[in-house]
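Reader question, answered in our methods column.
A reader sent in the components of a multi-part assembly and asked whether the whole thing could be modeled at once rather than chain by chain. We filled in our standard form and ran it. Here is what they sent:
COMPLEX SIZE: two components
ENTRIES:
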Amino acid sequence: MPDGCNFSGVYLKQRENYSHINRTDNHGFKKVLLRHETILLFVLAAEWIFFDVIGHNFGTYDNSCDILRHSCEIGLLALAMTPIILTGGIDLSVASLLGLCAILFGKFWRDAGMPIPLAAACTIGVGALAGGLNATLIAWLRLPPLIVTLGTYSLFRGLAEAITHGVDTFTNFPASFLFLGQERWLGVPAQALVFIAAVIFFWLLVHRTTFGRSFRAIGFSPEGAHYAGIPVGRRVAMVYVLAGIISAIAAIIYTARLGQAKADAGTGYELFAITAVVLGGTSIFGGVGSIHGTLLGVAAIAVLHSGIAHALLPGEMAGMLTGVLLILALAGSILPKTISDLRARKAAFNIPKQTA
Amino acid sequence: MNFTIQKLSAFLLIASLAVLAGCNKPAEPPSASGGNSPGGGKQLTIAFLPKSKGNAYFVSCAKGAQKAADELGVKLIFDGPTDPDPARQNEIVENWITLGVDAIAAACENKEGISTALRKAQAKGIKVITYDADALPDARSFFVDQATPQGIGYALMDEAAQLCQSNGEFAVITGSLTAENQTEWRKYVEERRAAAYPNMKSDAVEACDDLKDKAQSETTALLSTYPNLKLILSTTSLGVPGAAEAIKQAGKTGVVKNIGLGLPNENKRYVHDGVTQGVILWKTEDLGYLTVYAADALAKGALKPGDKTFKAGSLGTFDIQGDNIMLGKPFTFNKDNIDQFDF
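And here is the structure of the entire assembly that came back:
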């Protein structure tokens, strides 16, 4: 990271750092209440109750399953995005890769005549390769992730469009495959089981392994992490390859849900994923964040979208309210800290006055 | 301390998931499941799905749909993707299923993609009808067909013959020589000419690749190649304004007539200038109106598979061919009526 261009980031990170230290001196319960995730949980509950009251058939089990079904792909992308943002990076190419993987999956199955499991395995392989391309450019050539993935964002979507000439679509998948996207298994949407497995994997990775700690260390300071003996390049490469694999899995689920694969699959999902991650309390500068926060972020957005439809409000309001939600949630978690900072500053200012 | 916080937040997370999962509230039954309450009783809800919401064509369909809903006293929900997006269409339909609407009327962006969602709706007792663009036949009860290829072809040729007093040479601008719908339409234009207007002669068929510029240059070439041309007929909506521009620039306004398939708004200027005599399409408001009437009748059990005709309010009776409700003959927009339409 070039010096001098990231003062605010460094400053924020330091503040986070100190407040974290302060936290341990304070009363635990109050701090838990003011935690970003807790606030978001209340927001989510409020959303749920609000839409349950004003909407029709919103709080039903069927609708809960639909919400889960519709948020699996974005949820997967958000999960993969969390460790990336933790390291201080970003991946704008995930949704384009989803589109590319979706049509390649269709190609493998229909044109190359592969059975579905093999086609899926090859697709995940392609996802890993594409993630590897991002990883190579970012981790070894040290190019800025924003620029690299902005490039691959266009590249992957462009490839998908070129392969299909923008018109070819893949349909008529066997019912056994569509089961994954459209039916329920053990009472929940089948794809939710894949999603839950991914949640467990990423939660353990980020919160219970040294990998997770190294992501945060890299996010705080890549140099520092390097001198602390963390293989920065390899760790950074790992999160981008993981994102590629997850994008491919999301592509397969997307194809199963819609029963079709087209080059425009998942357009705009990357922004939903990033919004969910940031809404979940992960700092866009890296170093701070959690998987459960991301989950809450995904849920808050998904509930909002479904709630608006069930309250018979115009769908365009979803985008607007997502924006309001993001700003409110961030303000809500910053505000108590800002107020206490101000108080502390005031107190510090008062002390010399008294002694003088 | 930090450990306790983590444990507490994990507990809260799990508790919230348990609450979500525990919300096993039985769904309110759809207000009229399969026509148990024909006519009166609870107000029916009909959901109307366009390919995309901003498209003037569908906005105009929705206007007719709302008119029908007001007459019938049903609640109309109009929602769709902002851009044509099959994934969004599915999500909207799935939301309507849990919402418990009585009928869904859909214009399908992608046949296979949306059919799974529509089938699911049918399985829940929701009546499904399609309009403008059909789904797979087993995913809906009826398709409201705005125009058959034969209807379009015949209407184009009839209009051309009327303008030329059934006598003289004309040329055809087509979108592409290979596109299936264009080929069909040209076939019926020719069929009608041969059968009804033997004194008219088709000099040439040129493809404009669905580009207005190319339609213009092709028409310019046609005008100089065939000096006796009396009319240009376009089977693509981009052909009409392109040909109009060429005729105008060649100074042959009114001498060489210009007609074709098209939307009123793109052609208003040329129609008023007398360059274009008419554009042919269907009345989109009628399409929406008929669709909602049919959806309502289907939900009440008044419209059943096998019916041969269907009466839709003030528009009168429509034919049903198989499971296609026919909107009927296309409509010609000309100088006298084009300003009444906005799409």
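What stands out: The mean pLDDT of chain B is 85. Chain B touches chain A through 45 residues (CB under 8 Å).
Send us your own complexes using the same form.
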